[in-house]
Amino acid sequence: MTMTSPTATDAPAARISPPTAAARRARRDPSLLAVAFFAVYTALSVTRYHRLDNRSWDLGIFEQVVRSYAHLQTPVADLKGPGFPILGDHFSPVTALIAPFYRLFPTPVTLLVAQAALFALAVVPVTRAAAHLLGRARGAAIGVAYGLSWGVQRAVDFDFHEICFAVPLIAFALEAILRERWRAALNWALPLLLVKEDLGATAAAIAVVVAVRARHGRDARVAPAALGVAAFCVIACGLIISVVIPAFNSGGEYDYWTKLGEDGGGPLDQVLTGGEEKFRTLLWVLVPTTGLLALRSPLLLVAAPTLAWRFVSQEPHYWGTDWHYSAVLMPVAALALADAVHRGRHSSRPWLRASAPPAPAMAVTAALALSTALPVATLTHAATYRAGPAAEAGERVLAAVPDGAEVAANVRPISRLTGRCRVFWIGQGDDGPPRYIAYYDAHQTPASMVDYAQGLYPEARYTVVAEEAGFFVLRADR
Q: What global pTM score does this model have?
């Protein structure tokens, strides 16, 4: 018998050790944090909805749009104007993704829960990327700091807005950059073009960062392709603003150009206007979230387009820290911090090597401290979970509006009516005066409300059919 010598193929396969219990727990950290923050965000927005504590008409607008998509109709928002096609206002076809869920659960709460899920989803790439660079504890700290960040809390506290789709897309794109997965980063960035027209510039900035990070070594050929993607995003953004949106707009224009200044001042004049408030916003973006350390990371470039259009605008609401405008900056700041800490630990400067490692703990400490004065603090109050007498009275009054009616309303009644009525902004109507008016103003009386309605719609005669706790429903006599 001939004996053959063993070969490499005959050798027993190397055994891969199963992950340890600690490794399994570490892998679960991002998902567990995301679930926890989903519960927090849902509680914040849904309890506020049940308290009838709306802050704007946006939830009503987006419910009208999603309701149209859910019934396979042209997406319109009557609150913006009778039969107004929403793609003539902002280019956000991504909101159609909520339509199947809304068809099953036709309530504005569906939009709020979807938004909470999207904001919480971003916790996963933020925590995972930070842990990959810095280890489990520091990664979890940065994940918590993002989840509690003031920009996300303000957005959750502001009804619903389409930017909730942008936040996880940006987070996944930046995670891919930090892991040097260049194609994945570009693939995550491109859908931003479908979220909102200005986010094309953010997608372009992500592509530029890919080009910067990949320009050396074996991936150098990626840089020209990434710059090509950046150019595509800029061109697409320009076409959406100058061609697509005007095509849907009844006036044939992009309405938000006027917010860039009507008084003949140039961009520099607009930037200097409100300079103190804008500088405070910039400090809020950089100091409590990163301690200015993020300035050492090229990822911070991704925040530049959002800050630029806000600060060039003449609209004061864009300049500050309220509402939802800073949410897209929060994953950028968090992952720029992770990148900067990683770089700092390997720096040749002793002071930077010493100061970088504590930064994640400082960021989460700042987020916890600030949260005592931010919306999440309301979850510690028992009154948060009760509708309260005013909201209960509002429900009773608004029940006087029959399903399917045409009704003009102001902010607080809107989201209770858009799912079952055709709702216009007060002062508007489709074909003459609306049959019903739903209004909230604690300072009005039934007589003054009738006078107010007659001033808005002089061709109709209205009577108050329900009134309580500042809520009014008026009906036009026929």
A: 0.91
The answer to whether the Cα torsion of 345, 347, 350, 352 is positive or negative is: negative
**How far is residue 66 CA from its own chain's centroid?**
16
**Distance from chain centroid for Cα 421:** 27
Query: pLDDT tens-digit profile of 109-159?
Result: 999 999 999 999 999 999 999 999 999 999 999 999 999 999 999 999 988
Asked if 324 and 155 count as a contact pair (C-beta separation under 8 A), the reply is yes
Q: pLDDT tens, 298-332?
A: 999 999 999 999 998 888 889 988 889 999 999 99
Q: Are 366 and 285 in contact (CB under 8 A)?
A: no
- Helical segments of 97-217, H only: 99-104, 108-121, 123-134, 136-147, 150-156, 166-178, 182-189, 199-213
Q: Residue holding tokens 């809107």? A: 414
HSE-CB for 466 with a 13 A CA cutoff: 17
Report the Cα–Cα distance between both ends of the chain, in Å, rounded. Answer: 110
DSSP codes joined into one string, 259-302: GG-SSS--HHHHHHTTHHHHHHHHHHHHHHHHTTGGGG-GGGGG
- Containing H/E element for 230? helix 222-239
Element (H, E) at 330: helix 329-345
What the block records as the tokens of 157 is 């506290």
105, with CB counted inside 10 A (0-12, 13-18, 19+), is exposed
Q: What φ, ψ does residue 142 adopt, rounded to 5°?
A: -70, -35
Q: What is the pLDDT of residues 353-393, one digit of tens each?
A: 777 788 899 999 999 999 999 999 999 999 999 989 999 99
